[in-house]
Amino acid sequence: MPPRPAKTTTERFFGGPAPYEPGYRSGGYGSAATSRRVGGAFAAGRYQEALAGRERGLQRAPSAAPREPMPVLDEEAAKVWVYPAQVEKRDYQFVIAKRALLANTLVCLPTGLGKTLIAAVVQRNYFDWYPRGRIVFISPTRPLTFQQLRACHALAGIPMSVTAEMTAACTPPVRAELWKTKRVFYCTAQSLNNDIRTGICPAHTIVCVVVDEAHRATGNHAYVQAVNGIAAAHAQFRVLALTATPGSTIKAVQGVIDNLHIAHMEVRDNNALDVIKYTHSRKNDIVVVPSSRQLDQALALFGKTCKEALDLLASKRAFWVRDIAKVTSFQLIHARNEWRMKSGRSASMQDRVVIEGSFALALTLSQVYALLSKYSFATFHAAVSRIINEVAEFEAARAAGDAEAELSATKLRIANTQAVLQTVRLAGSFVGDGILHPKMTELVRVVSAHFAQNGATGTDTRIMVFSSFRDSVDHIVDVLASRVPQCKPMRFVGQAAGAGGADVIELDTPSKRGKGKKRRKSRAKAKAGLSQKEQQQIIAKFRSGGYATLVSTSIGEEGLDIGEVDLIVCYDSPSSVSRMVQRQGRTGRKRDGRVVTLLMAGHEKSVYDRAESKRKAMYRTVLKTSNFCMPNGSPRMLPPHITPQVRFVNIAGNVDSPDPSTLAARNKKRKRSAGKSGVPRSLLFTDASIGLTPAQRMRFAINGRSRPSPLLGPARPLGMDIATSAPAPKTWKSRRRRRCSRLK
Could you tell me which residue ranges the Helicase ATP-binding domain spans (predicted)? Predict the structure, then answer.
């Protein structure tokens, strides 16, 4: 028997010819090539039958439209690649974009150096190269989705008639229609992942995926699920991952590389030779704040309660750190898990109750101690007063005969400890007398000096103050408004309401039922967050000068285009390297900036030093791409005989550009804007390739008109899909409604 001819690399990867080769047949699932790749476990017919059953089980939103063919490369268009001529040509952007066209690339650029332009160039060229392919830009949040849509549209010039914004606010039928009629999609990762799982997204037609804030692609994040879902449909797509901080460790960065199928890295820092001439100076000042007599008095009083809990854990050999100033929540949680896995298995029930209760108490006390030592007297007073009020409500409910009212034992112990009550009264007296925390005093000095140097009105300068907790943000706004009125401060927080918000410290959240739940809702309503619409309004007013100072939680650290900021004040120091880099990247974009980090002398300063050394080590590691293993799973997507040549094109204004705000309409707006056809305005852009909008085609069919058209032909009978001549898909129903209809 003659030896079997060796397969080429392309045949081994695709199980047959590549999509750009003549012998390629678009089969996707169930094709002969796919049957060969499964190693003969099924015959071709049985494999197709099994796969069809699997797809029926996953698909909850059925569609009668036939499966679209795989997108095929336009070899004539692929001979050139387009770069926008209307923007300044920066060498590093040009080089990165050129390389990202040919391999799955992770781009690590500091904030403000133009990652969006690189994404727009890659999107535009794959839009031209694959006329039937779809391009997806995924972002972690809805505001980022709309922001990237506007930015990429201005740079890439892709027509709005084929562009859609899709988030969880879109209903499944609307998203299904968008997937049929559009080619470029800006969506959240969760929305894309849901559409892939339900089958309304033709994942096999996606040729390019841009992942914003790619450092989030770890574990089972929606980014990872979405990319894996596309890879399960076909292997022929390009990935472009964008981030300013890929990770704090080699393991974290390698995880992002593996999860996003990265084959090439492009890393630059502010000191890179091809970047430094486009950056502005950023002065980093570290201000070490000494303690005060009032703060020492309050810490000594509150520390008595903390010492009792830590001493008990040390006596039981469960935790060894006795100084509350050096204790962190991470240390306590790690020690508790270790104790549960080792000594806790053989401990008596009495010891388990005592040690678990001591861990819970120490965890809450360490969080409260951090508020007192690093934030302000008012923040500490608000947090503990919330616990005391919850205990009072619980006792009142029990006295009224409410047997279902519940509260954690930790909060009961805190509210009934004399040292805690005395510290709260002392902090309250400091707040009433106008005595500020030492760090707050330094913040007022820094902000006042900045405005004194840049003019009294502050119309030409902007400041951002970062603090991790919402109570601290509220107090900073109050203090700055009263002591530095020209700074015009405004709070900028997340959407979560009440004490359980993502950017609010939550001290041992209680579990309540009945009347207690109603009371908790009323408290949350009084402490509401900001909706996305309110966030956008605040950012717009900040950019226009309505506010000169933005006091923000972590919501303002990454992604959002807040505008030019001259001074960044970090009221606290996050241990996360990524968060610190994101904060610093808010200034020094188009003019020189300054970053001031306020640190209390002692433990907070030492924690910052360790985080800073981690950050420097991380950059040294990432700059050496040889430290990472790149999987060999990135298709070139162009035939070997084609090497595209660059063409500089002034693409601004060459495309239709309706107001992109119509694409961001939420559910309520869709209901108001829907016409007789029931199609939202985001679908009413004219499709140049057909000549009529989906709404017009639907009206012609419903009204029975037979308007002749060289593109559409005569009107089809009612009940037939206009675009495909297939039976119209059934109305999507939930599982419960389908069950009820069967019973009827």
Answer: 96-264
Query: Are 161 and 53 in a shared domain?
Result: no
Which one of 432, 453, 481 terminates a domain? Answer: 432
Beta strands in 144-246 (DSSP E): 163-166, 184-188, 206-211, 238-243
Q: What is the CA radius of gyration of the chain?
A: 30
Indicate whether 643 and 578 sit together in one domain: no
Q: What is the DSSP letter of 176?
A: H
Q: Which helix (H) or strand (E) is 396 found in, with range?
A: helix 377-399
Which residues in 425-493 belong to E strands, given as ranges? Answer: 463-466, 489-492
In whole angstroms, what is the distance from residue 178 CA to residue 170 CA?
10
Residue located via tokens 């907790």: 469
CB distance 382 to 492 below 8 Å: no
Q: Does 49 lie in the same domain as 117?
A: no
**Among candidate residues 542, 379, 547, the one with its CA nearest the CA of residue 476:** 379
**Per-residue pLDDT reduced to its tens digit, 462-517:** 899 999 889 999 999 999 999 998 889 999 988 765 543 444 444 443 333 333 44
Tell which residue, 602, 584, 601, 581, has the closest CA to residue 593: 584
Q: Which helix (H) or strand (E) holds 594?
A: strand 593-600
Digit-coded pLDDT (tens) for 123-133: 999 999 999 99
Assign 318 to helix, strand or coil.
coil
pLDDT at 716 over 60: no
Both 89 and 179 in one domain: the answer is yes
> How many domains does the chain divide into?
5
pLDDT digits 0-9 by tens, 406-417? 888 888 888 888
The stretch 10-28 carries a mean pLDDT of 45
Same domain assignment for residues 198 and 131: yes
| Domain assignment present for 147 | yes
**What mean pLDDT is predicted for residues 357-367?**
90
- Let me know whether 251 and 357 are in one domain: no
Q: Confirm whether 509 is domain-assigned.
A: no
- pLDDT at residue 227 is higher than 70: yes
3-state secondary structure at position 329: helix
What is the token pair recorded at 386?
């919330």
Residue 521 lies in a domain: no
220 plus 342 within the same structural domain = no
Range of the domain at 348: 293-432
Instruction: Name the burial class of residue 542, with classes exposed (0-12), middle (13-18) and buried (19+) by CB atoms within 10 angstroms of its CB.
Output: buried
What is the mean pLDDT of the segment spanning 90-97?
A: 93
For residue 87, tell me if it sits in a domain: yes
Six-digit token pair at 173? Answer: 């039928």
Listed in sequence order, the residues at least 6 apart from 57 whose beta carbon sits closer than 8 Å to its beta carbon are none
Q: What's the whole-number mean pLDDT along residues 79-94?
A: 92
